[in-house]
């Protein structure tokens, strides 16, 4: 029988303080709730849109418009949208705009609720970051860089970011 020797690498004191010290739980809760609120409001606006361009009879109209706008940003010396992402837009996202429309609208709501409630904080922040990255890759700046940075921090600090939340099983494991 072969045994595998494992070595644990100690965590630097600064990162341990920032990402694992429960004294920072109030700060992380504020960041988590702020990011969650932003996602919830964005998703709710899409789901309740009276024109039904996100969910409903005309689902996909808004996504198609957004994606077609992104494709106009693929030219020049420094395009806002890279060629490989333009391929993804043309061949995957646009043909399935209706599906992506529902995924974005309800995904934003689910991410927002999970972050506000402190439910699966790291996972919710990760998927929020994935959405932000996709919006950025499509050339939409707006609040996406800030939310992407905050989502990344929440992923790093998930233990403390979700400390005051619904899922608290990790509380007993921390020392």
From TrEMBL:
It is found in: Membrane. The chain crosses the membrane at residues 109-133, 145-166. Keywords: Membrane, Transmembrane, Transmembrane helix. Its main location: membrane. Coiled coil: none annotated. Signal peptide: none annotated. It is a multi-pass membrane protein. This is DoxX family membrane protein. It comes from Deinococcus oregonensis. The lineage of its organism: Bacteria, Thermotogati, Deinococcota, Deinococci, Deinococcales.
